[in-house]
Amino acid sequence: MKSLCQFYVLICHHYLAVVGAIEELAQSSRTISLVQETFETNFFANVNIIKAVLPVMRQRKNGHIVMLTGISKVS
To answer: How much is the average pLDDT of 5-14?
Structure first.
């Protein structure tokens, strides 16, 4: 069966941040779950999406993957 997928460019931009002073976060019971959720969103979600489209791009020997990220500062 021929694949109908036509991926030329994959743009990944997931961004989630945990905000707070480290000593305040360390006292929070939700800190570990917040950090895990952040990694799931910012890193593993991108890895899973890339793993899904990469075989099609490799087979066609064509395609681009663009990773965008962000950083913020809270004063």
So the answer is: 73
